[in-house]
Amino acid sequence: MRALIVAAGFGSRLRAVSPSKPLTSVAGTPMIARVVDAARAGGATSFVVVTGHEGDRLAAFLHDLDPSIICVPTPDWTLPNGHSVLSGADVMGPERHLLMMADHLFEPPIVAATIAAPSAPLTLAIDRRLDNPLVDLDDVTRVRTAGDRIVGIGKHLAVYDAFDCGVFAVDGRFHDALRAVVASGGTGSISAGVEALAVDGDARVVDVGDTWWLDVDDPRALAQAEAHWPRAGLA
User: Fold this and answer.
1) Bridging pattern class, strands 122-127 and 203-207
2) Beta strand pairing call for 25-26 and 104-106
3) Half-sphere exposure of 82 toward its Cβ, with a 13 Å CA cutoff?
4) How much is the pTM?
5) Beta-strand (E) ranges in the chain?
6) What is the crossing angle of helices 31-42 and 108-116, to 10°?
7) What is the C-alpha separation between 193 and 149, in angstroms, rounded?
8) N or C end of the chain: which has fewer CB within 10 A?
9) Max alpha carbon distance in the chain (Å)?
10) Contact 60, 17 (CB under 8 A)
11) Euclidean distance between CA atoms 130 and 160, whole angstroms
């Protein structure tokens, strides 16, 4: 199971801590390395990373971490994150693969559950714990479901029953949906691609239960991430 990691953005809310969000230290280990390690432990077998801001530094680090990791630069990393996905689409091909974000940390069982979910154009790992204290309600992507189908997604969704954990399994049909969104003048965000698939019932979910995950977007979330590893007994 190959994995595509989006790691192109500017990371403005962590700039005071680190010039590169993926390379930001989390309890002594760069964030991108924690994402790769957890994904591999959950079943990912190889990695493609889409780079942008501070791309040369990130690519050099990843080469040293694992020379088999492929880095693909996105032409304009200021565009919405779906454009970064499309930058890696040709390398990934139409086969089912994982899609994840460089700033979403997670435990390996989330990846394992996403891989094991029934095949669909898109499956998103979701958290139904609406009282999860680690979730930043001002920034999290909210999800509305009907059974195992996504019927709504967005940061400002008024009615929702789950949160987006940032781990997906997708195939070429998701890339096609993103291309159609961009061609029609849409934003080209990942969420817009999910919405396009949801219209036909092709966007599914898998519940992460009580498994730990965290979107690291600002210094507060970074402190929460660093507090996790000693408690979890991990390196």
Assistant:
1) parallel
2) unpaired
3) 21
4) 0.94
5) 2-7, 25-26, 29-30, 46-51, 70-73, 97-101, 104-106, 122-127, 142-146, 149-154, 162-170, 203-207, 213-215
6) 50
7) 14
8) C
9) 48
10) no
11) 9
Digitized pLDDT (tens) for each residue of the chain, 235 residues in all: 999 999 998 656 676 777 889 999 999 999 999 999 999 999 999 999 999 988 899 999 999 999 999 999 999 988 899 999 999 999 999 999 999 999 999 999 999 999 999 999 999 999 999 999 999 999 999 999 999 999 999 999 999 999 999 999 999 999 999 999 999 999 899 999 999 999 999 999 999 999 999 999 889 999 999 998 876 665 5
Tokens of 216: 């690291």
Report yes or no: 51 and 72 within 8 Å, Cβ to Cβ.
yes
Which are the contacts of 101, defined by CB distance < 8 A and separation ≥ 6?
A: 5, 6, 7, 35, 81, 166, 215
Nearest-angstrom CA–CA distance, 125 and 39: 13
CA–CA dist 78, 47 (Å, integer): 23
Between the two ends of the chain, the Cα-to-Cα distance in Å is 25
